[in-house]
Amino acid sequence: xxxAATTAATSAAAIRTQVAxxxxxxxxxxxxxxxxxxxIDSIIIDQRSRADIETTIRAGILEQxxxxxxxAIDPHTRVDEVGMRHDGIELRVRGEGHRIDFPGLVGRSxxxxxxxxxxxxxxxxxxxxxxxxxxxxxxxxVDDAASARPRVIAHTADGAPLEIEADFVVGADGxxxxxxxxVAGASGDGYFREYPFAWFGILCEAPPSxxxxxxSNSDSGFALISQRxxxxxxxxxxxxPDIDAAAMTDAEIWDTLQARVPGTTLREGPxxxxxxxxxxxxxxxxxxxGRAALVGDAAHTVPPTGAKGMNLAIADVxxxxxxxxxxxxxxxxxxxxxxxxxxxxxxxxxxxxxxxxTSMLHTAPDATEFDRHRQxxxxxxxxxxxxxxxxxxxxxxxxxxx
Length: 402
Ligand code: PHB
Known about the structure:
The chain is an alpha/beta fold. It has two domains: 3-83 and 111-191 and 281-358, 3-Layer(bba) Sandwich (FAD/NAD(P)-binding domain), CATH 3.50.50; 193-280 and 364-397, 2-Layer Sandwich (D-Amino Acid Oxidase, Chain A, domain 2), CATH 3.30.9.10. The protein has 13 helices and 22 strands. It has helices at 26-37, 50-55, 64-73, 79-82, 102-106, 115-128, 180-184, 250-260, 309-328, 334-337, 339-361, 369-383, 386-397, and strands spanning 5-6, 13-16, 19-22, 42-46, 61-63, 84-86, 88-93, 96-101, 110-112, 132-135, 138-143, 151-155, 161-165, 168-171, 190-205, 213-218, 221-227, 232-239, 271-284, 288-289, 292-294, 300-301. The strands form four sheets. An eight-stranded mixed β-sheet has the order 8-7-16-17-18-15-19-22. Helix 1 (26-37) packs parallel to helix 6 (115-128), helix 1 packs parallel to helix 9 and helix 9 runs antiparallel to helix 11. The chain is globular. The chain starts with a strand and ends in a 5-residue tail after the last helix. The chain binds P-hydroxybenzoic acid. Residues 59-61, 213, 224, 226, 234, 304-305, 307 line the site of P-hydroxybenzoic acid.
């Protein structure tokens, strides 16, 4: 189906496909699968190597709907083999634990399954199905997005130009999206919020300190006790955004974490990775322009407290895949015209939830006594009320995609 051609203007080797996908993250890979199912061919490019994609540590919580989709894509998905179903989380307020029982409240659960494992599975599956994925290819820009023949202008790792001509271009290329300029304008215009704190994250070799995740609000700040496997744990504590991750000793890290989870004795072990996660909320003003659209982090960023990042990306992709099928198979423009509105409905709910969990659980550096008491009142009004817990459970496990 693809015809190789040479474009006089750039003398780049132009390849042709129906959908050019920039970014081989969860959004790009799931999209290529859903498109292939609909008989639509696509090419994915990503500037990273396959090994980079498979080893970068990201978040770990999958919503019920994300797991349902991964099962539909692959009935033998390793989520069911090595992922861990979690039927609740604990909100700990100054040492007092309150469990949010997901199945009891909303009949849904979440799974702890690291994003890089999802990526390994999806890459193996897509490459096994013959998907054209080009690693080490950097997109420079998208030309002619408003026309019926948008083009991705890119180059390979050794600098050779590469041009992809498509019926549609999708930016699944993360928060530093190159495609965004073609969709949302040169400034990548959008709605933006920064937070006066970050997370200091560690991976350590130790057994789990608790059966479920603990989100702890303490007098000295926030901490999250998460997991990766029976042998490896992921933990975070609130820190200043400009902290130097290398400056703390392991003992200081453990003291900080321990002080913030009163009521639990953390099981310590060698720390083998540390990183600092900045907190941002962002939604691009436009998600689609002509024959180009944005999904996932290219379209929006959420702070990690609500564990929404990858789940939201997959939800965008489900909506976009249906719209592209209508457009490219059925010649129906209406679903793609409605893509932004449909996707934004969920995006803003997730933005609110992520902001709310963040502001409810963290201690702002300039918090007054009033703010601290109000926050404690807010937390109690959630955990002590079934309606409050249900609201949290519904958002955390993910609203149905429909
Ligand atoms: C993680 O395990 O990395 C994780 C879990 C829950 C969150 C954020 C990150 O809310």
